[in-house]
Specification:
Layout lengths: L5 H7 L6 H22 L5 H9 L4 E9 L2 E7 L11 E7 L14 E9 L5 E7 L3 E6 L1 E7 L3
Antiparallel strand pairs: 1-2, 1-4, 2-3, 3-7, 4-5, 5-6
Helix pairs in contact: 1-2
């Protein structure tokens, strides 16, 4: 994460000792990221723009699997502050670069995401979860809204 760092996030929490300063820094970072995203949005895949616009804040990862160059995450947005609220959202990343342990993501809360451009038309979605962070570099993102259960 470049703009929404864990350090600032932890500073926002009650009893951090620097909540007000962290809140000011968070607002500055949010404004900078908004400008950054607006400048590069035309170069991002439409699905990445959609995810950044609607967000998955406070969604809970229900399923995570990395197979070859494909990463699948299913996020429950029942209580999320999100444009997807109340749904199960399947995110399928194609052309993923790198290897990372995804089993530890199950049960974690999706907090914030940042999109970044990479060479060759690729993108990187940086995600802050409640206990970890993940940088997903990929060629394509497919978003599916699963039937309500």
């Amino acid at each position: 994460m470049v703009f929404f760092t864990r350090e600032i996030y932890l500073g926002l929490q009650p009893c951090s000792g620097w909540e007000r300063k962290a809140a000011r820094q968070w607002l500055r970072s949010a404004k900078l990221y908004e400008q950054y995203l607006a400048a590069m949005a035309p170069m991002l895949p439409p699905s990445v723009r959609r995810l950044c616009k609607q967000g998955l804040h406070d969604g809970v990862v229900q399923f995570a699997k990395l197979s070859g160059c494909e990463l699948v995450l299913v996020v429950d947005t029942t209580n999320a502050l999100s444009g997807f609220r109340g749904r199960q959202v399947r995110l399928t990343f194609h052309g993923v670069v790198g290897r990372f342990a995804v089993a530890k993501l199950v049960g974690q809360w999706w907090l914030y995401e940042e999109a970044h451009l990479r060479s060759g038309g690729r993108f990187c979605l940086s995600v802050m979860f409640d206990r970890t962070e993940l940088d997903i570099e990929a060629e394509e993102l497919v978003i599916e809204l699963l039937p309500k259960q």
